[in-house]
Write a structure and sequence with these properties.
Blueprint lengths: L1 H22 L25 E17 L5 E3 L2 E19 L2 E18 L4 E8 L2 E12 L2 E11 L18 E11 L6 E12 L12 E13 L4 E13 L18 E13 L4 E14 L2 E15 L6
Antiparallel strand pairs: 1-2, 1-3, 1-14, 3-4, 4-5, 4-6, 6-7, 7-8, 8-9, 9-10, 10-11, 11-12, 12-13, 13-14
């Protein structure tokens, strides 16, 4: 009888989690950071200069996971977006490392459909912007280090009664630290890791405060050199875990206390052409081991304009 009650309760929680997703009374509140956004060489800082990047994001979602990772539903959710990133790395140093700052503007398009519940929704628009006022990068022998502080401002449209929103409706502090280890003397083999800590504030218009979230990302690759070009290819992945439960009266009592999590792994290819001042990056990962989150795949690609200071001599 105890087992039957537990199974019924778990099934009820899972269905409530799905209904919460569809009605925006969110069962588990996600943060702004996208697991899998970094991979190879994530602990390295670019040389001094201006960098302007355009990112593309495509994430088809085909599964909603409930407590203990059980599949609740297999809907069709398509998330796509474009992200503009501006970064400046200054030649001046602070605490022995190069100082940098960055600004990011994402535009998202979400489509959600479920034949089972006859629910459909779509939203698009500018999401919450990110500002990184403090970033530092160091090079110590064959190891690069980086650390930065950023915050997300709730600039995107957010309606707590809407099933989908381009913005999340809350301020967030983000702290990152990572390193890249060039394993051999020729710096062909490389391993990297990045940690991201999200500290969230309360949502606007509803009594909900998302819990803090930790994301760890890794990459292991090999570089291929030519005279002026550099390519790096390898495996990448991430693990994301909520550290404490969401709080506030807006959280459904039956879902209170649960911690969501997710994992992903895949491959990445990077190509940098400093002479023509362009860099290309493609990363594709499968999500798995998810609990109280959506699950699918994620493709991230980017083109970056490189303006080195001083300019690279041809």
């Amino acid at each position: 009888m105890q087992r039957f009650s537990a199974v019924c309760r778990e099934g009820l929680l899972a269905v409530l989690g799905f209904l919460a997703l569809a009605t925006a009374a969110d069962a588990q509140q996600l943060g702004h950071y996208i697991g899998g956004f970094t991979g190879l060489e994530s602990g390295s800082t670019a040389p001094p200069g201006l960098y302007v990047a355009g990112f593309g994001l495509v994430s088809p979602i085909d599964t909603i996971k409930g407590p203990r990772g059980k599949t609740v539903l297999r809907p069709k959710i398509d998330v796509s977006g474009a992200i503009a990133v501006y970064q400046v790395v200054f030649p001046q140093k602070m605490l022995g490392g190069h100082y940098m700052l960055a600004f990011m503007v994402p535009v998202l398009n979400n489509r959600f459909n479920s034949n089972l519940f006859d629910i459909s929704a779509e939203t698009k628009g500018v999401s919450d912007v990110l500002l990184m006022p403090i970033g530092l990068g160091w090079e110590k022998g064959r190891v690069d280090y980086t650390a930065n502080y950023s915050f997300y401002a709730p600039s995107g449209d957010f309606d707590p009664n809407s099933p989908l929103n381009p913005g999340l409706g809350f301020w967030e502090h983000q702290i990152q630290a990572g390193l890249t280890w060039n394993i051999d003397e020729k710096k062909k083999w490389n391993a990297a890791g990045m940690t991201t800590w999200e500290i969230n504030q309360s949502k606007s218009g509803v009594d909900i405060k998302p819990g803090p979230i930790f994301t760890g990302e890794y990459g292991f690759g090999r570089r291929f050199f030519t005279e002026y070009n550099l390519m790096n290819a390898g495996i990448v992945g991430y693990a994301s875990q909520k550290l404490s439960a969401d709080s506030g009266s807006g959280i459904n009592p039956l879902l209170r206390g649960y911690l969501d999590r997710g994992f992903g792994s895949g491959a990445e290819w990077k190509f940098t052409d400093p002479i023509h001042r362009l860099a290309f990056d493609v990363r594709y990962e499968w999500q798995y081991g998810t609990q109280l989150r959506t699950q699918g795949k994620i493709l991230i690609f980017s083109i970056t304009y490189l303006n080195f200071q001083p300019p690279l001599k041809k």
